[in-house]
C-alpha cells in the first residue's frame, strides 16, 4: 500500500506533534501541526479565533484547513484534538491517508496536561479533579471518532521508537 499522508489523531497531550516530528524525520517527509498551520493561515491563535467567531466558525475553518492539507503529499499531520469529531473529517482523513490514534487514559492525559495548562486554553483554569472530569467527558465524546482510525496505538505502553514498526505493520510504504 502506498500512503501519501499520515494523520495522527488523539486528545490534546497525547503526543501527536512529538511523534509526528519523529516520524517525519525518520521518513524525510514533511510535518504539519494542523493547529499551527491554522494559526499561520489565519494570523491569530485558535483561542482568539474561537473567542471572536465562536466554535462553529472555527470548526468550519478547521475543515477548510484540513482540505488544504489533503493537497499535500509525503506529509505527517498532527491534527487538533477535536478535528476528527466534526463534519466528516475522520472519514475524509481515512479516505486520504493512514490514520493513527494515539490512545491514552484520562489519568495519563492529566499528568501530561497539568504542566502545560498555561498554553492550552481549554484546560487553563481547571484544578486536578476538574481537569480529570473534563478529560473523561471529552474522551467519552470523542472516542467513537478516534477509534475509526486505521491503527489504534496504546501510547502508554508503546515506546516511541516502536511507532515506525507500527506504521510498517500497517503496510505503509514511505519510499514511493
Radius of gyration of CA atoms, rounded to a whole number: 16 Å
Strand order in the largest sheet: 2-3-1-4-5
Beta content: 5-15%
CATH superfamily: P-loop containing nucleotide triphosphate hydrolases
> What general form does the structure show?
globular
Number of domains: 1
DSSP helix count?
8
In helices, the fraction of residues equals 40-55%
SSE order: EHEHHHEHEHHEH
CATH architecture descriptor name: 3-Layer(aba) Sandwich
Which CATH class is shown?
Alpha Beta
Straight-line distance between termini:
10 Å
Runs with pLDDT <50, length 5+?
Answer: none
- What is the CATH fold-level name? Rossmann fold
The class by helix and strand makeup works out as alpha/beta
The overall pLDDT, averaged over residues, is 87
Description:
Helix content is 49%, strand content 13%. It has 176 residues and is of the alpha/beta class. It has one domain (5-166): Rossmann fold, CATH 3.40.50. A five-stranded parallel sheet has the order 2-3-1-4-5, sandwiched between helices. The longest helix has 19 residues, at 128-146. The mean pLDDT is 87.
List the helices and strands and how they pair.
Layout: E1 5-9, H1 16-27, E2 30-33, H2 34-42, H3 46-53, H4 55-69, E3 75-78, H5 89-96, E4 98-103, H6 106-113, H7 128-146, E5 151-154, H8 163-169
Parallel strand pairs: 1-3, 1-4, 2-3, 4-5
